[in-house]
Amino acid sequence: MAEIDAVGLDGTKGGWAVVCLARGAFASSVFNTPPRVVIEALDRDADLTHQDALAMGVAATGSGFSSETWSIAPKILEIHRCRPGEVVGQTGILQ
Following DSSP, what letter does each residue of 10-75 receive, concatenated? Predict the structure, then answer.
């Protein structure tokens, strides 16, 4: 079984590889999340708009994310703030 960056914060194009693989059988359950650069920007500016965040995400990863996904960004930020350490490599494992 592949390891998945459950929060989607690794910020690299390689991080989306697992998402692409999972889209086959689980297409309706797999979605792009805002990358780390977007979540960190939200941490600095609570008024960040989806449009500005989307532009950042596309610039960072080449992929966008839906407005529905953007609506859970504050919860993703809560997880980001609680992380015990930095993301290691492209697996998204927290130490």
Answer: --SGGGGHHHHHHHHHHGGG------HHHHHHHHH-TT--HHHHHHHHHHHHS----HHHHHTHHH
| 88 within some domain | yes
Query: Domain tally for the chain?
Result: 1
Q: Which residue has the tokens 């995400």?
A: 57
Cβ contacts of 15-21, under 8 Å, gap ≥ 24: 15/61, 15/90, 15/92, 16/61, 16/63, 17/90
The string of pLDDT tens digits covering residues 31-48 is 778 888 999 999 999 999
In a domain, 8, yes or no: no
